[in-house]
């Protein structure tokens, strides 16, 4: 090669980033295996419980329960809608796969909520935390999933648990962001009024900020669910089961039928979850004068019970 | 309110907004002006050397245009904004020196605030909103609901307890805001332009409501307003602020009759004096012939008078006598034997505004009497016109 040139110094200067990462990773794998195994444990537990429950409930009972849930949370129409979507899932023969995917998604949602909402609250309270957290969230959202699939496999192995882990990485950011935004958007005059009546910071959070931020936080939950669902397909590359696996197999074998069935299953599941969480979000923002126990199937039975007793 | 005592005293309070208040304070000590400080340090002086006292049971109005520092002033009182220097004492307790816990206690028990924007919690029902202060103080639900309902009934919203704020009109929402403040049963009620966001009719109604509540329970109220008519209507005393300074404090009448400077004067220009002057303020003793039985003094000449006002020995008004041409030469006993005529009188504390019709319709200058009938003077049409044209 020619001698050093200022115009193109990169012939000589280079930062061996790839090598570094590789050696760090090797070091971690060799010395901290136990630690990463320990991280698997809670995810394993939650996943186990949710999958066992979802898989053991017979489809018709499952449909009935979820439509009752839809009715309770968002009205009669939603109940009917839930029943139809899930019934269709069963019809195209992907009930079991759907339940696996659903348990994966719910597990990752669980951990996203556990970590994301407190993180969002913290970053809403301190600008410094927000400044630190934000680039990390950016990286989590923009880093192509394939990049961290390999290290995750090296550290955690393959299967559903690491699948949930990569899903959490991908789906966590919107919940943190929207929790942060929701709390920061609480009108200044409400905050001032709460202060004027002697709220401690804790009372402020629980009595004013969180209730007023609920619709935005619910939008975050909704986004997290949707991202989780889209991640499930990619995660199937590290041997995660469910609908994503179907799609991946279909593509691998050029079996369009199989891929389509898996894809449609995912879409149906997505619609079901999206509508349900959106409806919850709207409900929390609409200042419904009725209490939760006065609406839906519970309200129906409560009214029955009351009218029986008033006679 | 002569026998009332000071409940809140504010002494030499300053508030400098910005990141470097110390430099600004030093400049202030050297006598720098607000503009100078802003130019040199970028610090804004919000309140400049404010000192005043609020008496127990009065409505103390702080008035000024936007940017005069009045909203800052009221927030300094419960330390929603920390004063840069100076002391604020509530019942002899120095608020400015309180620690966090004690400050929360003051906000929970001593001072409640009503906001211009209502600032009700949209996720709480009317009664929950009203009970908010008690909830924060940790009062039991049963007890706080009872007290909240009482407060709501005071402001006439008892039936709307289960509604949500967005279901109510603006005026009703502010009644909830008022009830929320009253539920705490505070020593001092801070009202920050509480009625400014309401339309004129509702505002007038709410002012009336406040006056009525004040008559019932004699609370101390610090009321912020930019509306002079409002200040005059509800205020026992008014403090006028301009550019962060308190420039004059007094009753509406005092300020009106003796404005401190041009700013105050222009403020009061065009004010309808009939709204706050009372009949006794303008009644004159020099109109008409006053015949006082006790002293039996009869003015030697009464050539220009057409009516005589007859007082008994306790200076109470007995009647009005019309004087005809030849009565002027008649003696006093002849006058006294004349038939007194039908007449109307007005009470001394009647607002001038409310007696205009009576004065205009009566053929005689209308006598002003105290509640027990004691004669205070008379108001003629000329006098009334002169009064109304003032300002």
From TrEMBL, chain A:
PANTHER family: GLYCINE BETAINE/PROLINE BETAINE TRANSPORT SYSTEM PERMEASE PROTEIN PROW (PTHR47737), GLYCINE BETAINE_PROLINE BETAINE TRANSPORT SYSTEM PERMEASE PROTEIN PROW (PTHR47737:SF1)
Organism: Marinomonas phaeophyticola
Topology term for the membrane: Multi-pass membrane protein
Domain ABC transmembrane type-1: 98-277
Top-level taxon in the UniProt lineage: Bacteria
Keyword Cytoplasm: no
Cellular localisation: Cell membrane
Keywords: Cell membrane, Membrane, Transmembrane, Transmembrane helix, Transport
Gene name of the encoded protein: proW
Signal sequence, renumbered to the chain: none
InterPro entries cross-referenced by the UniProt entry: MetI-like, MetI-like_sf
Regions crossing the membrane: 78-96, 102-124, 145-172, 225-244, 256-273
UniProt record similarity statement: Belongs to the binding-protein-dependent transport system permease family.
Keyword Cell membrane listed: yes
Protein name (Swiss-Prot/TrEMBL): Glycine betaine/L-proline ABC transporter permease ProW
UniProtKB/TrEMBL annotation, chain B:
Gene Ontology MF term list: ATP binding
Presence of keyword Cell membrane: yes
One Pfam family recorded for the sequence: ABC_tran
Protein encoded by which gene: proV
Superkingdom of origin: Bacteria
The protein, known as: Quaternary amine transport ATP-binding protein
Localisation: Cell inner membrane
Protein EC: 7.6.2.9
Domain ABC transporter stretches: 32-268
Keywords annotated in UniProt: ATP-binding, Cell inner membrane, Cell membrane, Membrane, Nucleotide-binding, Transport
Oligomeric form and interacting partners: The complex is probably composed of two ATP-binding proteins, two transmembrane proteins and a solute-binding protein.
InterPro entries per UniProt: AAA+_ATPase, ABC_osmolyte_uptake_ATP-bind, ABC_transporter-like_ATP-bd, ABC_transporter-like_CS, CBS_dom_sf, Gly-betaine_transp_ATP-bd, P-loop_NTPase
Family as reported in the entry's similarity comment: Belongs to the ABC transporter superfamily.
Segments passing through the bilayer: none
Catalysed conversion reaction: a quaternary ammonium(out) + ATP + H2O = a quaternary ammonium(in) + ADP + phosphate + H(+)
EC class: translocase
Organism listed in the record: Marinomonas phaeophyticola
Membrane topology annotation: Peripheral membrane protein
């Amino acid at each position: 090669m020619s001698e050093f040139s200022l115009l193109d110094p990169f012939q000589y200067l280079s930062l061996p980033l790839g090598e570094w990462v590789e050696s760090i990773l090797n070091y971690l794998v060799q010395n901290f295996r136990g630690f990463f195994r320990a991280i698997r444990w809670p995810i394993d537990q939650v996943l186990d419980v949710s999958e066992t429950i979802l898989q053991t409930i017979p489809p018709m009972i499952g449909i009935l329960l979820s439509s009752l849930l839809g009715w309770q949370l968002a009205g009669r129409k939603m109940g009917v809608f839930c029943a139809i979507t899930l019934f269709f899932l069963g019809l195209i023969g992907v009930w079991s796969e759907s339940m696996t995917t659903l348990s994966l998604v719910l597990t990752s949602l669980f951990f996203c909520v556990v970590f994301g909402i407190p993180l969002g609250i913290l970053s809403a309270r301190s600008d410094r935390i927000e400044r630190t957290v934000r680039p990390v969230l950016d990286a989590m959202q923009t880093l192509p999933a394939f990049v961290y699939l390999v290290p995750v496999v090296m550290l955690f192995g393959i299967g559903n648990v690491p699948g949930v882990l990569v899903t959490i990485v991908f789906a966590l950011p919107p919940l943190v962001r929207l929790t942060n935004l929701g709390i920061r958007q609480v009108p200044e005059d409400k905050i001032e009024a709460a202060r004027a009546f002697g709220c401690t910071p804790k009372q402020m959070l629980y009595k004013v900020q969180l209730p007023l931020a609920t619709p935005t936080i619910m939008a975050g939950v909704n986004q997290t669910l949707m991202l989780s669902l889209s991640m499930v397909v990619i995660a199937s590359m590290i041997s995660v089961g469910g609908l994503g696996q179907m799609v991946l197999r279909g593509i691998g074998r050029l079996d369009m039928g199989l891929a389509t069935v898996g894809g449609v299953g995912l879409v149906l599941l997505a619609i079901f979850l999206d509508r349900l969480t959106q409806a919850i979000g709207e409900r929390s923002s609409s200042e419904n004068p009725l209490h939760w126990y006065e609406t839906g199937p519970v309200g129906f039975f409560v009214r029955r019970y009351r009218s029986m007793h008033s006679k | 309110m002569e026998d009332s005592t000071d409940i809140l005293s504010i002494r030499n309070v300053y508030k400098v907004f910005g990141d470097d208040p110390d430099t600004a304070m030093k400049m202030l000590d050297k006598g720098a002006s607000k503009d100078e400080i802003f130019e040199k340090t970028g610090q804004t002086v919000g309140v400049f050397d404010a000192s005043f006292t609020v008496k127990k049971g009065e409505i103390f109005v702080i008035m000024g245009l936007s940017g005069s520092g009045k909203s800052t002033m009221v927030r300094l009182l419960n330390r929603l904004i920390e004063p840069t220097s100076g002391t604020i004492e509530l019942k002899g307790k120095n608020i400015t020196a309180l620690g966090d816990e004690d400050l929360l206690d003051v906000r929970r028990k001593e001072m409640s605030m009503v906001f211009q924007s209502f600032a009700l919690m949209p996720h709480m029902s009317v009664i929950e909103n009203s009970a908010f202060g008690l909830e924060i103080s940790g009062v039991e639900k049963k007890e706080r609901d009872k007290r909240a309902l009482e407060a709501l009934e005071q402001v006439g919203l008892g039936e709307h307890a289960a509604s949500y704020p967005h279901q109510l009109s603006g005026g009703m929402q502010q009644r909830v805001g008022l009830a929320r403040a009253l539920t705490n049963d505070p020593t001092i009620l801070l009202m920050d332009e509480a009625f400014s966001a309401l339309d004129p009719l509702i505002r007038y109604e709410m002012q009336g409501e406040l006056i009525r509540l004040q008559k019932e329970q004699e609370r101390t109220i610090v009321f912020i307003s930019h509306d002079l008519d409002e200040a005059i209507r509800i205020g026992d005393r008014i403090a006028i602020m301009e550019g962060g300074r308190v420039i004059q404090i007094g009753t509406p009448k005092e300020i009106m009759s003796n404005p401190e400077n041009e700013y105050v004067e222009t403020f009061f220009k065009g004010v309808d004096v009939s709204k706050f002057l009372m009949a006794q303020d303008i009644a004159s003793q020099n109109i008409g012939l006053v015949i006082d039985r006790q002293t039996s003094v009869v003015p030697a000449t009464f050539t220009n008078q057409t009516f005589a006002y007859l007082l008994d020995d306790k200076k109470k008004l007995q009647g009005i006598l019309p004087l005809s041409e030849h009565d002027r030469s008649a003696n006093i006993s002849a006058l006294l034997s004349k038939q007194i005529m039908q007449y109307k009188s007005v009470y001394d504390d009647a607002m001038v505004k409310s007696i205009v019709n009576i004065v205009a319709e009566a053929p005689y200058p209308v006598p002003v009497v105290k509640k027990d009938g004691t004669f205070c003077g008379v108001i003629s049409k000329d006098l009334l016109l002169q009064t109304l044209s003032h300002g």
